[in-house]
Here is the input.
Amino acid sequence: MNFFSKYLWIALTAARSNMAYIGEVSSRFIFLGVILYIFMRLWQVTYHETSASQLGGLTLTQMMWYLTITEAISLSATKVAQEVDEDVRNGTLAVQLTKPISYVLYRLATSLGERTIIFSMNLLIGAIIANTMVGSTPLSLAGLLLLACTLPLAFLLDFLGNFIIGLAAFWLEDTSGLALIYSRITWILGGLLIPLELFPYWLQPLVKALPFASMIYGPAKIFVAPDINNFVEIISRQIMASLAFSICLIILYRIALRRVFANGG
Amino acid sequence: MMINKLCNYLNLAKEYVRLNMLAQLEYKGAFAAQIIGMVINDGTWLSFWCLFFSRFPALRGWDVKDVITMWAVAAAGFGLAYGICGNALRLPGLIAKGQLDAWMLYPPALLPHLLFGKMVATCWGDALFGIGIYIIFVRPDIAHLALFLVLVLSTAILFVGFGILCGSLGFYLGNSQGLSQQWHDATITFSTYPATLFDGSIKLILFTLIPAGFISFCPVEALRQFSWQFTLASFAGAVIFLILGTVIFYHGLSRYESGNLMEMRG
Here is the structure.
């Protein structure tokens, strides 16, 4: 088995495991339905009260589809930080290090496998809900293709951020607070609840440059408003942020491994 | 007689809170981290509304202060409810696993002992957040602050009553953890958005099946208009759900089957 195929196999196994518990996963759809309905009312009322056909460059239909994508991305997040934290505390990490696979790549493959399935299901259900609520669907092949190109890097970036937080278990008593703070910062600065174009004008350049925008806002915006220049900009930011996060992870991981103690028995 | 009984239950609640708090304070660092984490979590939503109202100053007559009031009432009410009656959130699991046995050994009545038995530590973060943002951002006078605290109490009663009602589904449906959770979460989600967004049948649902209207609408209107009618409406909704939850709990209890579970309890 070559280098890539073993991690592909791990990702496929994680995806298949999620398919086996599809009933459990489907309970998320109720929440997705509730939140999309509330957002639809919020933005319907806002568009109506401002008498605007576009807000932040998006029509009401585009806004609903933007929120469908952002919620599908957010609700597909896996518990990487929590799993790494547990592996550090209960010694699973030390056991994993003896196996002929990289622990980081094993976690990455598992996370991507799970997330692909959950995101696909979220998107399917979200699409049905959004289509029912706002009627016509602005689906375009270009939008779908550009979304498909930006999503893997968005998932990778989120994985790297969460993995770094999980590694903090080597030094901290409890990383759940840190993981919560990270996820909430991602929500707000990533444009989960409100597109970045509706942020105060002075804040927009800053939030667009931060890596959080590449995780949620970028893929959702490129889907509802496909544009090749915007796509190149998003991909460039994703690659830069992934490189920066990867370097941090490698340094932190090497330091952390020096603190691993394994006792026989 | 009635007053004596009420005082006894209040003393019982006070003792349980004291004991649960002492247990939490054994792990001071983790307790503080959970509370700070919850304050940051709630702060995220406040940031969203501040961003929203920085672009759109009003939403069907509600401004940013009204939405902050809504969040303050909901968060403080939720925090007070489950900071004291934490087991109301765990009821479906306790019923499904047959873990009510231990609570049945206590002197009657069962429900207060069961509810007070656990504390959800993060809820004190919600309570602090709610009261804090109301004082800092809304800057109420003494009368409004007093009314706010009364409405937090009514919201807490509603959350406890609704928690018992959702949890008691377990007596009838077996393992109802998923359904109870979804029902409860839907109420919390709706209660953190202005009820003025919704019309028609959805509004009716928000005062019946998903009683978020008694959290997000009546208390905010009571504080906006300093209205005793809306205050009474908030309390009426809370008391109805508490009575409904209690009646359904005791009715369902007759169907309860012991899990014959052996466990050590600290």
About this structure: Chain B touches chain A at residues 29-30, 33-34, 36-37, 40-41, 43-44, 47-48, 51-52, 54-56, 58-60, 178, 181-182, 185-186, 189-190, 193, 197-198 (CB under 8 Å).
